[in-house]
Amino acid sequence: MLNTGRRVSTWMLSAAEMLNAEFDTFHMNIEEDSFVQAILNAGGRIGYMHLGENNRRPPGRIPAVERNLWALKKIGYQGKLTLETTCAAWWRDWQCLFHLA
Questions:
Q1: Is the dihedral of CA 24, 25, 27, 30 positive or negative?
Q2: pLDDT of 47-69, one tens digit each?
Q3: Cβ contacts of 10 within 8 Å, gap of 6 or more
């Protein structure tokens, strides 16, 4: 099981160059001490980033999201960012968070 950024990075160094990892902040909340350090450890091996809070609400209610985005920028992440939420009004919440409304 590859459940930390360091394990992903170590394993992928010996794997084919075509492999990338999906990082999911909901699950990272369980396994990682630091999201930022996990992202930096995995570096360019992240191919897909799944965002969500520890309660499945839209990201942004906890300041850590901003640091996660900083870390993704630092490693030059160019992949997709997806959002999973159980909130029926997630779009309204997302608009309020980023002043899009």
A1: positive
A2: 888 887 777 766 666 566 677 88
A3: none
* Buried b / exposed e along 4-13 (16+ C-beta atoms within 10 A): bbebbbeebe
User: Distance between CA atoms of 72 and 78, rounded to whole angstroms?
Assistant: 9
Q: For tokens 């997302």, name the residue.
A: 94
The beta-strand segments (E) located in the chain are 21-24, 46-51, 80-83
Q: 54: which residues sit within 8 A by CB, 6+ positions away?
A: 26, 29, 62
Query: pTM here?
Result: 0.66
Contact yes or no for 75/41 (Cβ under 8 A): no
CA distance 66 to 24: 15
